[in-house]
Amino acid sequence: MSTVETVSPAEIESTRMLGARNESEILRAVARVTQAHVADCMGVSASTISRALDDLNRWALLLAAAGLQVVPVDSMVVDAHELTALESMAFKYLETRQQQRIKEGRS
Q: Quick one: which of 67, 70, 88, 102 could link to 25 by a disulfide (CB 3.0–4.6 Å)?
């Protein structure tokens, strides 16, 4: 049994934009460390890396369509729920601090 899922134009555009960011992030990282270094780490030739990069756009889009984002290894990734919780806690803290300052007469 086959199910057909309709993809909205907005979702297609979002995937395209994320795919472009993924591709850009990968190209910047490879440029930073060089294709030769990447090849050595993978145990392949630099020309293999060059050929792989020729098809990078398609792989970057595949990752984006699957809901994945490429980020540097030293980045901190926080999901939307964690960010919302952190913002809520920060807001409550700052609100309390402001109320304390008002009570102390030094707004």
A: 70
